[in-house]
Structure formats: structure tokens, C-alpha cells
Specification:
This protein has 478 residues and is of the alpha/beta class. 33% of the residues lie in helices and 11% in strands.
Length: 478
């Protein structure tokens, strides 16, 4: 519904860019979906309908219609003042990548994604396409993967390859589909397993992800800063992008995995063109352009432990880093929370590893104690203040539905950005604060206290914390 545009008005803080097309500071929201399937799973999300896969298996005859209704109505809200939207996507948005009938997911999402992106572009809002749920599942027993299972298969050559094909398709659409004009970044993989010893080959995948993005862009004639790579497009295919990409797939400057991904992406891109009336753009038009390269995006190196790869080592052109903070054991009182966030060292720690600029792509007002409204005003200000010292922040989520799973609207005040705006926890101008000195009483605390509380607030490398959003289902907009 077109009135979505009134919901996401470009912030006045969207000013000079660090790279062309990227705001100096990101103030954004995620477009997720809670309460899928209408069932409460408790501690084990595999025991009920909590994911896209579970829903598709339970309701194979109606899943597509149900999700179409969701996609058609979910993203329709009022003024939020933000400048960025992060869209969590499952790999099944590219339907040719799904191994049916062994993998079951809703179909038809790309049509709604294109429509929503068109609206966001009209509103002047920047978009990050987040590969949130990867082929084979990247993390065990997590609803955000689209399939709550202990059988984690993403870290295999077959599924790495499917993710690279997805990347080639999304990069192509981001540059050639007019509806994707507001996309400035693609995130390679949301929240991989924290223990790097359990993610074999992930560092190679990171390198191949970057090279896949850049291979598509070089084929398009887009100049990529800091790149020694070059692609020569034969004159015979200068009016046919898919044919040119097929030529690039033979370029030996790229690893075999990248070459294969480009080749496999070509028929998928042609199929999308036929479905959405983009054949002329993809196959019968001059495609060389002087556009801006996408910002490749990874979870920061410190997301993992046990000798992880450093995504900064594979950067070619503009690249940014993502961190997610959900407080689950930073102490059970307001003082511990404030001391932790007001002394947050993530930005400096990541910068020392070359993981900069850093934005905080997920956070909320959730606490592990009964927070008063007075505290939530402070908690919102303090987190915004901390994250704005980096490249900015993206709240999870832009809204949550009101249902039995969310205890009416009790959860909304700590998980819905729009509810937080209405209640006054958030300022209408996302760059503003109720109290810019909110951290003054908590800074310069003893180093031991600060170190402990910060460590316990993150989901990186600690068994005492986890990605925690409460006992309700999290899914995606598309």
C-alpha cells in the first residue's frame, strides 16, 4: 500500500556522505515480522510453527496466500524520521535457489520486495539488503534462519555456492532494476556461529562474496576504488548484460567459485527479467554505467572467537561492518546496564582491526528486569548515544504486532520503534536526545566493572549471553 511512504520520511540528518549514496550517520529500522504461525515455542523453536519453513510444511496449500497477505499489509506505518532501512531476506527470495521439494518456503516475495523498495526510493530512504537466512541454515536453533534446526549446513561448498549466486543476483538487481535504486549495501551473512572453529571455509566465503559483488560491478563498468581487478566486455555483448556477465564468468582473475556463481546467476537473472518486464534492461540495452559501487557488509570480526577470519582483509572498495547488541546478562539492574552501554568499547576495538565504519544493525530496549518507563527514556538515549559514535544504528524492529505471543502490547514498548516513538522513549529526530548527558554519571567507572558488563552484554564469544529477543517468533518481511 502506497501510504507506506508517509511512514518513512527522510531525516533532515541525511547529509554529506562518507561514500556516495551512504549517509554520514545511519538512523534506521529493521523490517522483521513477529508472531509467525501463531504458536508459542517456549525454549525450543523446533517444536512449533516458528519459521517460514515450518509454516510452509504445515500449510503447503495456503502458505503463499498467507505470506502475500502479510507482505501486502505489514509495512504500512506513520512518520518515523529515519534515513535507513535494513531488510532481512531469506535466500528463498531467489526462488530458483530453493531445492524443492526438500526445502519448503513461501513463494512470491520478490514482487513485494520490488514494490517496497520502489516506495523507499521515492521517499529517499537508503536500504541495506541483509542476507538474514542463508541456504542450509547458518546457526542452530534460531528462528531468524528460517528453519529452526540443529542440522547446520551453510558451511559447506554447496551452500556457500548458493549464497554466492544469491549475491550475484542481488547485486545485479541493485544496479539495474530501477526499483532497487535506493540499495546502497548488501550484507553477506547475518549472525554466523560465534565459534569460528565451527564455520569452516567462512573466511574464503567472505572473500568470494566481495569478489562476486565486484565482478558484477566491473562488468557494468562501475569503477571500484582500491581495486586492481578489471573486466573487458567484448563489443559483441555491449548491449546485453546477461551475455556480458556470462563472459565475465570465464575471467580467470576470479576464483572458480565466483566464476561458477556468475554463470549460475545468468539464467536466474534472465528469468526474473521475463517475470517482471526487465528483459530489455537485462538483455537488450547498453548497460555500462558510472554508478557507485555497493558497500559490502559483514558482521564484525569480533562477532566470532577461536581465530576468526578478518573481513577487513578481503575488502575491495567500500566496506562496512555490523554489530548486534541485545543485553541478556549485563546485570539485573539499571545501573549495570547504563554502566555497560556508557562505556562501550566496541567501536574502538573494531577500528583497531580495520573493522570501520561500524554500525549497530540490531538492538532494542529489552531488559532482563522490569524496566520502568523512566529508565527506558534513559536506556534509549544511552544506546543511541553509544552507537552514534560509530556509523549509526538500526533498531530491531520497526514494529511488532499485538498478539497473545507478545502479551498484548507489553512487548511492543521495548521492541517496536514506532511504539517507542509514540510513548516518547525515542525522539522524533533520531539524531536528537532527551538528555545528551545521560551517560555522565556512568562514565569513567572502574575498568573491571566496565569490561565485565560490556562483555556480558554482547553475544560474541561468551556462553552466558545469546541473541535474545524474547520468547516469540522472528521472521522477515520478504
Amino acid at each position: 500500500m502506497r501510504h507506506i511512504l508517509t511512514g518513512l520520511v527522510l531525516s533532515s540528518t541525511f547529509i554529506a556522505c562518507a561514500w556516495a549514496g551512504q549517509p554520514t550517520h545511519i538512523y534506521g529500522v529493521n523490517l522483521g515480522w513477529v508472531d509467525m504461525g501463531g504458536q508459542l515455542c517456549g525454549s525450543d523453536c523446533s517444536t512449533c510453527i516458528s519459521t517460514e519453513s515450518a509454516f510452509a510444511q504445515a500449510y503447503p496449500d495456503t502458505v503463499n496466500a498467507t505470506f502475500a497477505q502479510h507482505w501486502d499489509t505489514w509495512f504500512t506505518q506513520s512518520d518515523a524520521g529515519i534515513n535507513t532501512v535494513r531488510i532481512p531476506l531469506g535466500y528463498w527470495i531467489v526462488e530458483d535457489l530453493v531445492d524443492r521439494p526438500y526445502e519448503l518456503y513461501p513463494q512470491g516475495g520478490l514482487s513485494y520486495l520490488r514494490r517496497g523498495l520502489g516506495w523507499l526510493q521515492d521517499a529517499g530512504i537508503q536500504v541495506i539488503l541483509d542476507h538474514h537466512a542463508l541456504p542450509g541454515v547458518q546457526t542452530a536453533q534460531q528462528m531468524f534462519t528460517g528453519n529452526c534446526t540443529t542440522d547446520v549446513q551453510f558451511y559447506t561448498p554447496y551452500n556457500y555456492q548458493r549464497a554466492l549466486v544469491w549475491t550475484a543476483v542481488m547485486t545485479t538487481l541493485s544496479h539495474l532494476d530501477p526499483n532497487f535504486g535506493s540499495v546502497f549495501s548488501i550484507e553477506a551473512a547475518n549472525e554466523p556461529i560465534n565459534d569460528a572453529s565451527q564455520t569452516p571455509g567462512y573466511g574464503t566465503f567472505q572473500e568470494n562474496f566481495v569478489q562476486t559483488v565486484r565482478a558484477v560491478e566491473l562488468t557494468l563498468g562501475i569503477s571500484v576504488p582500491s581495486s586492481n581487478l578489471s573486466v573487458s566486455v567484448p563489443a559483441s555483448v555491449s548491449n546485453n548484460f546477461t551475455a556480458a556477465l556470462n563472459e565475465t564468468s570465464s575471467a580467470t582473475i576470479f576464483p572458480a567459485e565466483v566464476q561458477a556463481a556468475l554463470s549460475e546467476a545468468v539464467p536466474i537473472i534472465m528469468g526474473i527479467g521475463a517475470t517482471y518486464g526487465l528483459q530489455t534492461i537485462f538483455e537488450a540495452s547498453p548497460f555500462k554505467q558510472s554508478g557507485t559501487p555497493l558497500v559490502t557488509n559483514f558482521m564484525d570480526m569480533n562477532w566470532q572467537y577461536n581465530n576468526p577470519s578478518n573481513p577487513a582483509d578481503v575488502a575491495i572498495g567500500p566496506q562496512a561492518y555490523d554489530d548486534h547488541l541485545y543485553y541478556s546478562s549485563a546485570g539485573n539492574d539499571s545501573t549495570s546496564y547504563m554502566t555497560s552501554i556508557c562505556n562501550l568499547a566496541e567501536i574502538q576495538t573494531d577500528a583497531a582491526l580495520g573493522n570501520s565504519p561500524l554500525w549497530f544493525g540490531e538492538w532494542s530496549l529489552d531488559t532482563q528486569f522490569n524496566a520502568t518507563d523512566e529508565f527506558l527514556y534513559q536506556w534509549a538515549d544511552a544506546q543511541k548515544l553509544a552507537y552514534s559514535k560509530g556509523a549509526g544504528w538500526i533498531y530491531w524492529n520497526f514494529k511488532i504486532e499485538i498478539s497473545n505471543l507478545t502479551n498484548g502490547n507489553a512487548r511492543a514498548k521495548q521492541w517496536s520503534y514506532l511504539e517507542g516513538l509514540e510513548l516518547g522513549f525515542f525522539t522524533q529526530d533520531p539524531a536528537a536526545f532527551h538528555n545528551p548527558n545521560v551517560c555522565a554519571p556512568y562514565t569513567n567507572s572502574t575498568s573491571n566493572n566496565t569490561s565485565t558488563s560490556v562483555s556480558n552484554s554482547t553475544s560474541k564469544g561468551t556462553s552466558s549471553t545469546c541473541r535474545k529477543r524474547g520468547s516469540f517468533a522472528i521472521a522477515y518481511s520478504f
